[in-house]
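Supplementary Methods S3. Complex input for the adenosine-5'-triphosphate-bound model.
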Amino acid sequence: MLLGEHTAARASAPSCDDGSGPIIALRGVGKSFVDAEGRSTIALEPVDIDVRRGEFLCLVGPSGCGKSTILNLVAGLEAPTHGTIAIRGEPVKGPGPDRTVMFQEAALFPWLTVLENVLFPLQVARVAKAEALSRAERYLRMVHLWKFRDARPHELSGGMKQRAALARSLVIEPEILLMDEPFGALDAQTADLLHAELETIWRETRKTVVFVTHNPREAVRLGDRVIVLGTRPGRVKRVVSIDLPRPRDQEQRDVALLAAVLRNELKSEIEKVLREEVDDGWRPAQEPVRPGPDRGLGGGI
Ligand SMILES: Nc1ncnc2c1ncn2[C@@H]1O[C@H](COP(=O)(O)OP(=O)(O)OP(=O)(O)O)[C@@H](O)[C@H]1O
Ligand SMILES: [Mg+2]
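Predicted complex, serialized as structure tokens:
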């Protein structure tokens, strides 16, 4: 069976392999932001999400549905307005070395070399120099960048920058990797290569990954499960288990079919966003434009 569970509001992980409960548990987690004039925006309606240890979970949803908000909450960079977030049963009180976030922009320090960028979090964590160097080498080799360790970020391609950012995320050896559209700005071939590399690293290091993407094919290529988020405000719309053998190919028929299911699910949500964000006259492209009685469209032809 290609399609797994489908729920509207709850996204429980399948039972954990070791029976120890989810590594990440969001219970009734919602988030509102209040601006300087006191106006409140609901970024996320209360959601329940469980992630099991070692799972590769993808979050897809239209712009503004709260994907980054969920990652920031799990990272401890923001506090929820409602509900609780627990990692291994312990409430999240702030950022911690067990979680790192990787963003679409590599955010490397331009004045440091690749190696120095990767060493940076270890210096902050006061890891002894020899140990830091050996770890940096291990992870730079893992992302195939050891040869470029003395290059500066401006000398690297987009894919190489993201590899360096991945090494920098991995070097503190977090149990949980939070990835916010990390390959969203890359061309398709480079993204394909990085999917394969990330999958290998995930398998070798047995990390738990929460991966945000706009791209349903990328979600089906990588995820054990995909949570489709709805928008305005964000909420869990559907949960799909991807029961396809790995490694998967984005061009594979089953991947394309499942991605089409997800894309369809997203379509109505994206249309909702466009209706709110563009001029009053916007309609979905497929909807025929019917001339009103006063328009005289095509008259005289
Ligand atoms: N710091 C903030 N202050 C005010 N509103 C915010 C803040 N951060 C996010 N929001 C709002 O919360 C909602 C969810 O934002 P979020 O960035 O999580 O969406 P997203 O799904 O990651 O979107 P995108 O796909 O464009 O990255 C949006 O309406 C956004 O404008
Ligand atoms: Mg975002």
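The longest strand covers residues 40-51. The CA atoms of residues 22 and 52 lie 4 Å apart.
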